[in-house]
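User: I'm putting together notes for a lab meeting next week and I want to include a structural view of one of the chains we've been expressing. I don't have a solved structure, so I'd like a prediction I can at least talk through. The sequence is below, exactly as it appears in our construct file.
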Amino acid sequence: MELHFENWIKQQDVSEDALILFDESIKCYRVGAYRASFLMSYLGFMKALRDRLLKSEKPTLVHEAEWTRTRNDLKNDKIWEDTVITTVQAKHKINKNVSVSKVFLASNDVIEDIPYWRRKRNECAHAKDTIISYSHVDTFWLFLESNLPKFIVDGGKEALSDKFKRFIDRRYTRPGDDFQPLIKEMVSVLRGDEIADFLKEVQDNYIEVDDLPDELGYKFWREIAYSPNKALQDAFLQFITSEHDKFAEFIAVFPNRLLLCTSKNELIRFFWKESLFNKIRRRYDTFWELALILLRNELIPEEEVEEFIIDLADSVSGMNIPSNVEAQELKEYGLFERIRWSIFERGILTEKYNAYNNANRYVAKVMFYIENTPLDSLVVQELNSLFSSYHFGNLHNRLQKFVRDQPLFLKEFNRIAKENNFSVVDFFSEDKAEIAEP
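Assistant: Thanks for the context. Below is the predicted structure for the 438-residue chain, given as structure tokens.
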């Protein structure tokens, strides 16, 4: 069975070298070798800090020469661990009573715990008489879970911004170059709240979200939206829920992230009342998918579902048609009953002066209904009446092709007409069905 720490550490932004040490620690823990387990975990922690220091730019409070010397020492296999400890504990005095870390943004309380773990590491490494048991390892793992994300190099945000600026500059970066290192660095360089703010900076200045899967904007933001890293995922949700328009823009591209935001009642309501119809419907092909997510998960109050379905029916157009699968699910919510009322029960195809214009205007909605719903006497009567004088136009051309491809439609049309004593016009003559048969 996987240990809690084992699962947690895999989701953190630590290097492969550090993960190997943590893996060794877990193996030792399982067989009761707790000294070795503690030592490997401690070294994994030191490796993780070393890697963060090496990939970060110079901290604000450190001089250039000092930082260069520190980086060189970190690359030295003989002294890198001592260098990490020295760097972690380096302080800068603000006044005679207050000092802060010169390098990391972690609090003084967290940094002051490091010497204790250092002593335990020495007790394990030098086989001292101190008893080391599973509780020491568990406690250290709890310390790491609480504090590893807090070891962030100060001054990294500005450097990270510069890296994004260079990444989108084709003078420095080839199209298709990997952006994963930038994402990983965001997690290690920035705090939780800072990540959300930085994501806004990225979208505003460097990489906008794109709904085309082959484009950089889609690929980059997809990695953010579906990241297994909890800090990054939380920051992403905080970022997209900060503004109505931003929320709509990202949810339109990544629709299944909508269910992660259902606690934002006001935001969700504005989304389905306003953004879905006035922003997403015109620009994105996820409109119907999002509508079904809202319906399926009962995110619309029961007393307002009917109004929502009316708005959906009004949204059916030549540029906005549900897929066959979506149509079948929407049928359960009464979408086709609403279309039937708006087209056939209202008689707009047989209005004395507007029949021709209405037929051309609502061709997509009429064909969507016909292609997904069985014929009945009202539909037969309305179509038959329209085509008695409607000899050309968009609906005429679309339905003519449909009749040619679906001869059974004409048979059913004529059967219903006969049962109701309708005289079928030439366009729907059953002879067309016979001609169309092989």
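A couple of points you could mention at the meeting. The two ends are 64 Å apart (CA to CA). Strands lie at 91-93, 99-101.

User: Perfect, that's what I needed.
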